[in-house]
Amino acid sequence: MNLFNLSHAFLWVMVALQSYFIIQLGRKIQASKGQAPPLPGLIEEDHGLPHGLRFPQLHFETVNKGSIDLRLLREQKLGFLIAFTDAKCSSCKSLYPVLEKFNKRNPHIQPLILMIGQQPDVIEIIKQYELSIPVANIASPTPFETGIFPFVYYLTPQGDVIAKSVVQHREQLEALLAQTLTSQAS
């Protein structure tokens, strides 16, 4: 066997190996497309009021629904979603439709939006997103120990914090609600 035949055989071995690895890579890519993406986890869940602490305020004057007292709703609701937003927050805009859909599908949980901003800006957002959820205009999020927007607390009917997270999308809200189930079970 001369050098030419040897190099020719070596070249075909290299082509076969490359073909094998390309086929394997294609199979792995195809298999990974069939897998569901991992569920989102909670974001900034260590931020804000500690778990188990009573929410510092349970009565609010809302811009669109009058006065709302969460203590009076204890017997009717399984819990409360308190969403902190800012009228100037672009990330918050994706939360409003999510909360509206949630409110329509889950009448046993009371959502409430606490929004920072000038009254005309708050009213404009209520109109723009056709919010049926009560929206209270607050001056500062400091008493509620958050400055991240949008940030959502889930409270028990008694007003205790059992879950919290940054929420912008339905999947994040579902992860927050899943956390409430594990918190209530323990």
Please provide a written account of the structure.
By secondary structure, the chain is of the alpha/beta class. The chain contains four helices and seven strands. The strands form two sheets. It has a five-stranded mixed β-sheet with strand order 5-4-3-6-7. Strands 1-2 form a two-stranded antiparallel sheet. Helix 2 links the parallel strand 3 and strand 4. The chain starts with a helix and ends with a helix.
Entry summary:
The strands form two sheets. The chain has a five-stranded mixed β-sheet. Strands 1-2 form a two-stranded antiparallel ribbon. The chain has 186 residues and is of the alpha/beta class. Helix content is 37%, strand content 20%.
Keywords summarizing the entry:
186 residues, alpha/beta, five-stranded mixed beta sheet, two-stranded antiparallel ribbon, 37% helix, elongated
> What's the rounded overall pLDDT mean?
89
Q: Within the largest sheet, what's the order of strands?
A: 5-4-3-6-7
Structural class: alpha/beta
Radius of gyration, in angstroms, nearest whole number: 26 Å
Q: Could you describe the largest sheet, including whether it forms a barrel?
A: 5 strands, mixed
What overall form do the CA principal axes indicate? elongated
SSE string:
HEEEHEHEEEH
